[in-house]
Structure formats: structure tokens, C-alpha cells
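Example 9 (inverse folding). The structure is encoded as follows.
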């Protein structure tokens, strides 16, 4: 066990018990991955963004273990003793940033000598969801490629090839987004969710209204919900967009009041069990987002 690990485990075990008790005894984490061939690089990732990017670049050479389980949201995740062990035993731990995952600070504080990569932005941005633009995701993929290559030099050419393929996909994706909103009835993206699409809206000239701030903990209120309803009526907004892990009740309220269409948007940081099992990629999520945005904003052709 690494220095300080035991102390962290004890603190977390107590904390985890409290959380478990508060949630009525529901388990909150995915069980550790089963034993794998020893020649693969063992990579623990915080959540689905580093998971899908590391899978795309690392492919067959890496064995991935994800801490935030499918169906959960990453901002308020509570690490378990199992999370600490998965980080301490991995060849590499990849997370986005403490601004997105505040709980990673607690994990890393107690562990020394862990090979960890903060794949997200190194400077503070208003909206830390940088992967929500294709080129933001590419920047993260480049950092991940570098870290994988350092941990597994024999895979250098393989990782590089995968990065080039991903870069080509990113270029196409960006072009589709650039062309996708040329002829739309509306550019107002009213999102009954947390502020995850700020970078995307800014990059592609859309006007974003989100119900809450950049994390799920941000306060949402009846007043803010009423504000969205007023905005939809005033500007003739044709649709509202939702996110999976926020209460569907909130979107239902907006739809009841305005009778507009409702379509999901995907933050990639949250993955449903179904999508996880299907191995959905970053590109697939973003193409779904583009499709639904174009539907909701009534874009032609
Ligand atoms: Zn988020």
C-alpha cells in the first residue's frame, strides 16, 4: 500500500458508509474490473469523457476501469474505498480536472507517487466542459496520447495512429457543426440542465439558456424555470433540450407550460447503462447532439 493510502481508506470508508446510509443502502459504484491479461496497461479513469477518449486512443493495449458508474453524474460523485484502490493500483489515472470532479482532489491528496494525468484545461474557463467542442476533445485526446505513450513506450506508433484517426473524425465533426446551423428557424438553445454546452454554443453561434450553473449542485429554482418558460414564449423557441440525469419533471413542467418539443442533449460526462454497454463513442454522442439540435432549432435542409 502506498504511503497515506490506509488513512485515506479509513476516512473514505467512514464517509462512504454515511453516503450509503443516506441513500438508503444503495451501492454507488461499479465493482472493480475483473482480472485482465498482465500485458495490458491498467488505466483508471474518473468518468466517461476520459474513458471514451482513452479507449479510442488506447484501444487493445489498455484495460480501463471507470470510477463514476454509468447512470451517475460526475460532479457530485462520492469516491469509495474501491475508488482509491483502483487509482492507487493503476499504471495511469486519467481525470478531467478538479473543477469538473472536485472529488479527485481528495483521492490524490492521500496518494503519493500515483501516475496521474489531468486531461482537462490547465487554465480556468467559465465553462469547464471543454470537450463539448470537437477541438476541445482533441486537445484532451492529445494529452491522453502523450501520457499513454509515456507509460507504455512500446505502443507509441499504435497510439499515434489512433490519434490521427480521431483527429480526422474531429475535423469532420467540426465541419458538420459549422455547416449545421446555417439555416435554422431559431438559434436559441433552452437547456433544462446544467451549464455544460456553453463552449459549444459559443463556438457555433448559438444562444444558450441553461437552468443551472456548471455543476448539478448549482441551485435551480422555480423562478429560473419560470424564466425559461417566459423566454420560450417571448422568442417563439421551438424546443427545449434536456439532460439524462437531471429530473425529467423539470423538463416536463416546461413542456406543459409551453407545448414545445423536448429533445435530449448529451454531455458525454454522463453515460446511460445502455450506451455504456453499447460502447458509444465521443463522435457518436456529438453526432446525436448535432442531430437533436438541428431538429429542435428547425434547421434546413
Ligand atoms: Zn457537467
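The amino acid assigned to each position is listed next.
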Amino acid at each position: 500500500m502506498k504511503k497515506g493510502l490506509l488513512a485515506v481508506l479509513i476516512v473514505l470508508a467512514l464517509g462512504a458508509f454515511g453516503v450509503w446510509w443516506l441513500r438508503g443502502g444503495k451501492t454507488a459504484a461499479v465493482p472493480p474490473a475483473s482480472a485482465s491479461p498482465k500485458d495490458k496497461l491498467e488505466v483508471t479513469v474518473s468518468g466517461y469523457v476520459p474513458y471514451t477518449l482513452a479507449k479510442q486512443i488506447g484501444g487493445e493495449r489498455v484495460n480501463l476501469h471507470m470510477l463514476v458508474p454509468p447512470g451517475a453524474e460526475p460532479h457530485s460523485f462520492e469516491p469509495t474505498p474501491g475508488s482509491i484502490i483502483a487509482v492507487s493500483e493503476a499504471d495511469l489515472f486519467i481525470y478531467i480536472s478538479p473543477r469538473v470532479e472536485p472529488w479527485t482532489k481528495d483521492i490524490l491528496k492521500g496518494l503519493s507517487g500515483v501516475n496521474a494525468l489531468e486531461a482537462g484545461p490547465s487554465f480556468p474557463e467559465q465553462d469547464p466542459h471543454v470537450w463539448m467542442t470537437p477541438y476541445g476533445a482533441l486537445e484532451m485526446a492529445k494529452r491522453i496520447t502523450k501520457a499513454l505513450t509515456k507509460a507504455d513506450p512500446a505502443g507509441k506508433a499504435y497510439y499515434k495512429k489512433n490519434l490521427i484517426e480521431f483527429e480526422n473524425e474531429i475535423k469532420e465533426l467540426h465541419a458538420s457543426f459549422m455547416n449545421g446551423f446555417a439555416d435554422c428557424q431559431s438559434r436559441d438553445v433552452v437547456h433544462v440542465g446544467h451549464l455544460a454546452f456553453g463552449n459549444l454554443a459559443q463556438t457555433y453561434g448559438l444562444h444558450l439558456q441553461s437552468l443551472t450553473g456548471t455543476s448539478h449542485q448549482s441551485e435551480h429554482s422555480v423562478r429560473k424555470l419560470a424564466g425559461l418558460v417566459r423566454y420560450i414564449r417571448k422568442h417563439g423557441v421551438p424546443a427545449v433540450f434536456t439532460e439524462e440525469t437531471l429530473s425529467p419533471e423539470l423538463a416536463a413542467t416546461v413542456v406543459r407550460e409551453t407545448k414545445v418539443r423536448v429533445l435530449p442533449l448529451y454531455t458525454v460526462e454522463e453515460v446511460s447503462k445502455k450506451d455504456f454497454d453499447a460502447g458509444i463513442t465521443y463522435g457518436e454522442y456529438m453526432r446525436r447532439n448535432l442531430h437533436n439540435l438541428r431538429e429542435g432549432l428547425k434547421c434546413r435542409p
